[in-house]
Amino acid sequence: MGLIFRSIVSAFFLGSAIALAADDLQFEVASVRGPTHPFVGIMKGGPGTSDPERISYTHVSMGRLISTAFGKRGDEVIAPDWVYESDAFTVPVCDVEAKVPRGATKGQAEEMMRNLLKSRFHLAYHFVKKDFDGYELVIGKGGPKLTPAAPPNGPAPERPGVVIGGAGMQRDKDGYPDLPPGYPAFRGMALNGRMLTSVRSQPVSVLEDLLQLPLSRQGPVRVVDHTGLSGKYDFKLEYAQITRDQDINDLLASAVAAVRKLGLDLKATKVPVDVMVIDHVDQTPAGN
To answer: Which has the least CB within 10 A, 105, 114, 128, 283?
Structure first.
């Protein structure tokens, strides 16, 4: 394994992010330290979260930094073994602390992180096209059966966003996680061999992520939204709970049935993806 490191980056950015070109969106690095012991990473903050002006990443691998900055899954990146090492106790990790300019978008914050990786870790890469097995999410024969998102009613949830499982989660009368309307979130929990997921104030494209769980049992797949629906919706999703010895065809049928209840459908297809090839990346960040 390569050198285990820890990089603490404090970043301050002055001025308007909106007016700057992509290459100019830079974090101003204050300090870098290391090494330390590896650990499973925690990633908090940034645009789109409850703390949009601060990014705090603790014990995060290079693979997670690259995936987050470039929006790539692990199988969409060809990199040295250590970048996506699965052993949390040997993989090199780093800490990133950054202040994000007020009003910066999620895309701009990602560009800042990309530029940070280039300047501090000398990241170099190129892209190649690759076809992946996948599914096209389309509108079903009877039309969509989706409920437009309800307006807020009650206080914002203490844990907004994505939660799968969790002790003490309140359920509605049908056993689904009970979420207050008007606040973007989705939460899922297993009950009697079924996975029950509640979705609030989300676009249909959220199914691209939610369907990864039941469909990935047959290997890595992609789901692409071709419904043309642009609104925000409230809906529920139910499919078979995944078990080790479960038949793959049963899982697929369960996922298709769940989607059809929403007036949508899944069609098998090939999904072209820009795969990122890492030409070079340092394990140890450049000094101040």
So the answer is: 128
Q: Which two tokens stand for residue 103?
A: 């009003």
- pLDDT bin (cut points 50, 70, 90) of residue 110 is very high
Whether residues 81 and 158 share a domain: the answer is no
State how far the Cα of 113 lies from the Cα of 65, in Å rounded to an integer: 8
* 170 and 249 assigned to the same domain: yes
pTM over 0.85: no
Strand locations in 9-103 (E): 42-45, 54-61, 77-78, 93-99
122 and 180 in a single domain? The answer is no
What is the band of 171 on the pLDDT scale with cuts at 50, 70, 90? confident
Number of domains in the chain: 2
Closest by CA position to 221, among listed 208, 232, 234, 230 = 208
How many CB atoms lie under 10 A from the CB of residue 11? 20
- Whether 32 is in a domain gets the answer yes
- Of 5-9, 27-31, 134-138, where does the model show the most confidence? 134-138
Quickly list H helices, 92-152: 106-121
